[in-house]
Amino acid sequence: MIFDTHAHYDDKQFDKDRKALLDSMKEGGVGTIVNSGATLSSCKRSIELAGQYPFMYASVGIHPDEAGSLNEETFAWLKDQLTNEKVVAVGEIGLDYYWDREQHDTQKKWFIRQLGLARDMQLPVVIHSRDAAEDTMAVLKEHAADLKCDIHCYSYSLEMVREYMKMGYYIGVGGVVTFSNAKKLKRVVAEVPVERILLETDCPYLAPSPHRGKRNSSLNLKYVAEEIGQLKGMSCEEVIAQTEKNAREFYGIAK
Ligand code: NI
Q1: Range of the domain at 106
Q2: pLDDT in tens, 50-93
């Protein structure tokens, strides 16, 4: 069944119909969802959702846009959350020079500290990186060469993905791959071994075509799997089965 490795069902866009939508997942072919935290409050909400739904898990970490909300006290709180049995990863953490909401030094400092948490707790890491390709690679090479990482919503070059493959990392692929203008990403997906691809929505954002621009949900991942299948000469079902296996290995979630 479909494994959505990165979703944000805590988002207010789901306030009206969250329960009905999540209750329809199984019927829609979606078996497992990891809800990703980004702020202190969304980490809390992710853990609550994971507690409510057996098929949901949480990833806990502070997004670079929110790096300023971290201090020794909130960092200790974060570390505490990682002992929860439904918390399966640290993330999403990284660097974002597109929105550039926090000083680069602040972003890097807390990115590196949170990578340390993942090492201490022996958890995989979900990386957010936007317009910060070189710095992200430099930090990861120095501080995360021994960690299991997913470059979520991969948007960089073919050269860079080759480097990430050598490091044993995974890439997250979502709705963007179905866009007709996503030529670079299509080339990346065509080349990367399917064993290193994770399906993700990043919902409510980044709905695939034919629903581009609308609110996204895990039910749309079949369109992403179909596109990946076309790029790799596989059936949609094969892509779903293989990426579920990858996601279980990545997060350490047995069937
Ligand atoms: Ni996200």
Answers
A1: 2-251
A2: 999 999 999 999 999 999 999 999 999 999 999 999 999 999 99
Q: Cα of 92 to ligand 1 centre, how many Å?
A: 7
Residue indicated by tokens 């179905």: 178
Element (H, E) at 248: helix 236-251
Q: Are 2 and 24 in contact (CB under 8 A)?
A: no
- Output the furthest CA–CA distance in the chain (Å, rounded): 50
DSSP 93-157: EEEETTT--S-HHHHHHHHHHHHHHHHHHT--EEEEEES-HHHHHHHHHHH-TTS-EEETT--S-
Question: How far does residue 203's CA lie from ligand 1's centre (Å)?
Answer: 8
Cα 6 to middle of ligand 1, angstroms: 6
pLDDT of residue 255: 85
* 100 alpha carbon – ligand 1 mean position (Å): 16
Residue 52 sits in a domain whose CATH number is 3.20.20.140
Distance 7 CA to ligand 1 centre (A): 6
For the whole prediction, is pTM greater than 0.90? yes
Give me the number of domains the chain comprises.
1
40 C-alpha to ligand 1 centroid (Å): 14
Distance from the alpha carbon of residue 105 to the mean position of ligand 1, in angstroms: 22
